[in-house]
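Chapter summary example: a protein plus adenosine-5'-diphosphate.
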Amino acid sequence: MKRIKVMLGDITKVEADAIANAANTTLLGGGGVDGAIHQAAGPELLEECRMLHGCATGEAKITRGYQLPAKYVLHTPGPIWYGGNRGEEQLLRNSYWNCLELAAEYDCQTVAFPSISTGVYHFPLEKAAPIAMQTIHTFLQGQNTVQEVSLVCFDEVTKSAYDKAWKNLFSK
Ligand code: ADP
């Protein structure tokens, strides 16, 4: 039975087949969750990322997880929020979707995501959570490789937004 879970936690500690990284287009590391993932994975992650020559917003690239409990990292630069008229919503959908396609291609059954773009990229959380939830749900229904997707929220405010989006999707 495929499912989507919302949890509070640190994604660098999550034992999924793949975790997503809210990266930037250089893929050379940054702050927030990106910094935490590189810190926990060790320097080999940056070495592999250097060979990828960046990634466009909404696209995704995969690496190994090195010292992380996760086998793979799905690096995706989410959109920077400029007010909503620059295709931000579609780009955010693309980030989730393209990570999941890569995960399925690499035979991952369990995948964990942070709240992409809602940190320093300032995508409004109340808009981002339903987009993430709906995109993941639609993806899961169309394939049989990925079985469980976790949304790993770093704070309570983020978790309540994803809990609400989950309820709106599943408890009607
Ligand atoms: P973006 O640039 O895509 O906005 P950020 O890293 O600034 O990315 O923030 C995305 C989300 O990740 C925020 O909700 C932030 O609190 C959260 N975050 C930061 N560190 C971690 C972590 N170790 N595990 C899970 N989420 C994290």
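Key point: Residues 10-12, 22, 32-34, 36, 78, 114-121, 152, 154-155, 158 surround adenosine-5'-diphosphate (CB under 6 Å).
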